[in-house]
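Lecture notes, continued. The same structure-token format from the folding unit now serves as the input rather than the output. Read the line below as a description of shape only.
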């Protein structure tokens, strides 16, 4: 039977991130990905033009129908945006299913992707249910209540350990924005006194990283749905994402749009 997972996340009209990235990743990895849309986001790589949240009732209804109809083996959450949407989503989740939480707080371009009060709801309701949380450097700063992002691999590992102890779940701290020719991501297991596990991949330069966090978290969810243990799922998903970055397609500028804008200056 084809493994099934559910993504609860926002819709990205540029199809590089969010639900669209999750669906593409799921199919590429041999799964059947379901989706519950939380927000419609008008964006392109490097720019967020607008966010329209879906009603919490509709978000809950989507999740309920997916779980009622399909054998969902794992769940991934992405952009939840508001505390009300988060509460509605968590209220529909069964107690015995792996949950990968991508705490979508800040876009690659720097735009905020959640309301201020949502963090408290994450900590109260969703993080205690999480199998894995996958913060980037900016999200680590917010979750650890720090003023500066980690600047070294050791600092990244210490931040991941702090979070794993605070939230009693595994943390995958993404180090792609650290300097150097190698990208190092750190997995801090949920078990007390367990050692951090580094995953190293070569850096690919001069590309847009829009959507890579979504791709990674949905790939982890896909491997969990296929029956992999957490460490195996994280390693396989990081390998997949690294290959996807290295072979990514670069669109040429929209020449029609550029000419159209020039004619209206």
């Amino acid at each position: 039977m084809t493994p099934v997972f559910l993504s609860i996340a926002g819709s990205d009209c540029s199809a590089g991130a969010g639900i669209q990235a999750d669906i593409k990743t799921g199919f590429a990895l041999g799964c059947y990905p379901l989706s519950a849309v939380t927000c419609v986001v008008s964006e392109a790589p490097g720019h967020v033009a607008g966010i329209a949240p879906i009603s919490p009732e509709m978000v809950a209804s989507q999740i309920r129908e997916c779980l009622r109809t399909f054998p969902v083996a794992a769940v991934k959450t992405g952009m939840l945006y508001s505390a009300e949407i988060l509460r509605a989503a968590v209220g529909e989740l069964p107690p015995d299913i792996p949950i990968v939480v991508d705490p979508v707080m800040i876009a690659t371009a720097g735009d905020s992707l959640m309301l201020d009060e949502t963090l408290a709801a994450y900590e109260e309701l969703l993080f205690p249910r999480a199998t894995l949380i996958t913060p980037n450097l900016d999200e680590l700063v917010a979750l650890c209540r720090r003023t500066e992002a980690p600047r070294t691999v050791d600092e990244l590992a210490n931040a991941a350990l702090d979070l794993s102890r605070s939230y009693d779940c595994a943390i995958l701290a993404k180090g792609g924005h650290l300097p150097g020719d190698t990208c190092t991501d750190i997995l801090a297991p949920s078990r007390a006194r367990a050692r951090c596990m580094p995953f190293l991949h070569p850096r690919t330069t001069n590309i847009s990283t829009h959507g890579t966090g979504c791709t990674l978290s949905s790939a982890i969810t896909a491997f969990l749905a296929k029956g992999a243990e957490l460490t195996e799922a994280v390693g396989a998903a990081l390998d997949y994402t690294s290959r996807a970055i290295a072979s990514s397609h670069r669109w040429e500028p929209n020449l029609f749009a550029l000419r159209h804008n020039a004619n209206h200056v």
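Point for the exam: The two ends are 57 Å apart (CA to CA).
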